């Protein structure tokens, strides 16, 4: 640990010493941004902001915070996702609780919110909104925040995920405009919706063990596994969407890399019209937009 104060030295329990040591631990664990993540973990353990740490690197770290930090640092070095250690993650304009019960909201998925806004320039026309496989509630709640006249329903097979989405609706002041259901996607739903969103499981079963360890080891397989070809959930969506979309309604579906043609073919075979596909920031086709013919 050259360059860091050892734990027994005069400044070994200072903010600077802990950040230096933690950066080396995370670098050795192949964490992408070790110093940034060290600051995030120490600020969380101390109950302060990251910028507070930088003002006085010689400030002492209280014993209780030291223990919390060491525990979190060891977990992060074992590839436990940062969002699980902090207990929350940002998505769109929201701050969402995050637990191992659901996928962690990702920036790529914000592409679906952008696509929904592009599909409905007049935000007042969306009054009924549905999110199939809601997870944390990220898509449902982000779109409710953008479509002020909408009431939304989120459905997830996992009761734990549904409970988390309800908590996130409360956390973000949207509980009065959202209903969260634990169930088998569209099976228990009646009526039609102006906007339907879904980030379904789309990873090929055989590919899951090769994902980055934060995902393969710590996120729920139910939310990842799309079957042998990754398209099982889209087949279910193709069956359900024609009966759920209102006249003029649109569905926005997240895609995995290389799935645009296959999913588009499934939707057309179900009698739906493919209206476009929006790429994410990396240029990968990410948000497929479909509507009734």
UniProtKB/TrEMBL annotation:
<feature type="binding site">
    <location>
        <begin position="199"/>
        <end position="202"/>
    </location>
    <ligand>
        <name>substrate</name>
    </ligand>
</feature>
<feature type="binding site">
    <location>
        <position position="156"/>
    </location>
    <ligand>
        <name>S-adenosyl-L-methionine</name>
    </ligand>
</feature>
<feature type="binding site">
    <location>
        <position position="199"/>
    </location>
    <ligand>
        <name>S-adenosyl-L-methionine</name>
    </ligand>
</feature>
<dbReference type="GO" id="GO:0032259">
    <property type="term" value="P:methylation"/>
</dbReference>
<comment type="function">
    <text>Methylates the class 1 translation termination release factors RF1/PrfA and RF2/PrfB on the glutamine residue of the universally conserved GGQ motif.</text>
</comment>
<dbReference type="Pfam" id="PF17827">
    <property type="entry name" value="PrmC_N"/>
</dbReference>
<comment type="similarity">
    <text>Belongs to the protein N5-glutamine methyltransferase family. PrmC subfamily.</text>
</comment>
<feature type="binding site">
    <location>
        <position position="185"/>
    </location>
    <ligand>
        <name>S-adenosyl-L-methionine</name>
    </ligand>
</feature>
<feature type="domain" description="Release factor glutamine methyltransferase N-terminal">
    <location>
        <begin position="21"/>
        <end position="87"/>
    </location>
</feature>
<dbReference type="Pfam" id="PF05175">
    <property type="entry name" value="MTS"/>
</dbReference>
<keyword id="KW-0808">Transferase</keyword>
<keyword id="KW-0489">Methyltransferase</keyword>
<dbReference type="InterPro" id="IPR050320">
    <property type="entry name" value="N5-glutamine_MTase"/>
</dbReference>
<keyword id="KW-0949">S-adenosyl-L-methionine</keyword>
<dbReference type="InterPro" id="IPR040758">
    <property type="entry name" value="PrmC_N"/>
</dbReference>
<feature type="binding site">
    <location>
        <begin position="133"/>
        <end position="137"/>
    </location>
    <ligand>
        <name>S-adenosyl-L-methionine</name>
    </ligand>
</feature>
<dbReference type="InterPro" id="IPR029063">
    <property type="entry name" value="SAM-dependent_MTases_sf"/>
</dbReference>
<dbReference type="InterPro" id="IPR004556">
    <property type="entry name" value="HemK-like"/>
</dbReference>
<dbReference type="InterPro" id="IPR019874">
    <property type="entry name" value="RF_methyltr_PrmC"/>
</dbReference>
<dbReference type="InterPro" id="IPR007848">
    <property type="entry name" value="Small_mtfrase_dom"/>
</dbReference>
<protein>
    <recommendedName>
        <fullName>Release factor glutamine methyltransferase</fullName>
        <ecNumber>2.1.1.297</ecNumber>
    </recommendedName>
</protein>
<dbReference type="InterPro" id="IPR002052">
    <property type="entry name" value="DNA_methylase_N6_adenine_CS"/>
</dbReference>
<dbReference type="GO" id="GO:0102559">
    <property type="term" value="F:peptide chain release factor N(5)-glutamine methyltransferase activity"/>
</dbReference>
<feature type="domain" description="Methyltransferase small">
    <location>
        <begin position="126"/>
        <end position="206"/>
    </location>
</feature>
<dbReference type="GO" id="GO:0003676">
    <property type="term" value="F:nucleic acid binding"/>
</dbReference>
């Amino acid at each position: 640990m050259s360059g860091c104060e050892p734990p027994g030295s005069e400044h070994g329990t200072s903010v600077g010493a802990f950040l230096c040591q933690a950066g080396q631990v995370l670098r050795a664990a192949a964490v992408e941004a070790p110093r940034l993540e060290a600051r995030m973990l120490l600020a969380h353990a101390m109950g302060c902001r990251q910028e507070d740490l930088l003002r006085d690197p010689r400030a002492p770290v209280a014993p209780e915070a030291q223990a919390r930090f060491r525990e979190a640092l060891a977990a992060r070095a074992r590839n436990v996702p940062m969002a699980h250690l902090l207990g929350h993650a940002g998505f769109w304009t929201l701050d969402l609780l995050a637990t191992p019960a659901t996928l962690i909201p990702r920036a790529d998925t914000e592409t679906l919110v952008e696509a929904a806004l592009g599909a409905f320039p007049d935000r007042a026309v969306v009054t009924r909104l549905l999110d199939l496989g809601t997870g944390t509630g990220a898509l449902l709640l982000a779109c409710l925040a953008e479509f002020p006249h909408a009431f939304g329903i989120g459905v997830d097979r996992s009761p734990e995920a549904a409970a988390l989405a309800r908590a996130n609706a409360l956390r973000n002041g949207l509980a009065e405009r959202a209903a969260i259901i634990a169930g088998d996607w569209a099976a228990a739903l009646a009526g039609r919706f102006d906007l339907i969103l879904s980030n379904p499981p789309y990873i090929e079963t055989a590919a899951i063990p090769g994902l980055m360890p934060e995902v393969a080891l710590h996120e729920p397989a139910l939310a990842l596994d799309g079957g042998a070809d990754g398209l099982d959930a889209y087949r279910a969506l193709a069956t359900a969407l024609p009966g759920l979309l209102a006249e003029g309604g649109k569905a926005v579906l997240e895609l995995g890399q290389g799935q645009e043609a296959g999913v588009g073919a499934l939707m057309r075979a179900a009698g739906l019209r493919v209206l476009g596909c929006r790429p994410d920031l990396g240029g990968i086709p990410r948000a497929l937009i479909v509507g009734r013919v």
